[in-house]
Design brief:
- By secondary structure, the protein is an all-beta fold.
- It contains no helices and 9 strands.
- Strand 4 and strand 5 form a beta hairpin.
- The radius of gyration is 15 Å and the shape is globular.
Length: 138
């Protein structure tokens, strides 16, 4: 739900969307697209789950590309080793660690905006990080 200056009434997600990306040792530091808002109204991200098969912690970066093509680094978080893949450590929610999409705490994606993810260091060979963004377009 969002409230804007142009429309002070609540706006709810119109079209649910679940989008995913996988980073392996090949992509590692290259940003890959995780979520694209297909709406001219933008979208809202509810959560970003991360499952890691790497045996070491990984620092991941979240980047927002706006409709002008400009990339903005939003922040970084440490994904614990084997999160969600070993039956002991739970999957990691990237948005649960005070990592938000906007300075005011919002989780909105601008119209036609793109969220990208990348690891900051090399991922172990044959390991991967799987990201799943749950949200929707307005």
């Amino acid at each position: 739900m969002a409230i804007t200056e142009a429309n002070p009434r609540p706006i709810f997600q119109n079209k649910p969307s679940v989008q995913a990306a996988i980073i392996t040792d090949v992509e590692t530091t290259i940003p890959v697209t995780l979520y694209t808002s297909s709406s001219s109204e933008g979208g809202l991200i509810d959560s970003i789950s991360v499952v890691s098969t790497d045996t070491v912690d990984q620092i991941v970066q979240l980047t927002l590309t706006d409709n002008s093509g400009t990339d903005y680094a939003i922040g970084e978080a440490i994904v614990p080793a084997l999160s969600g893949s070993d039956g002991v450590v739970v999957a990691f929610n990237l948005l649960s660690k005070e990592l938000v999409l906007q300075a005011d705490g919002g989780r909105t994606v601008p119209p036609n905006g793109i969220l990208k993810v990348n690891a900051k260091t090399t991922i172990t060979v044959a390991a991967s990080l799987t990201f799943v963004a749950n949200g929707g377009d307005y």
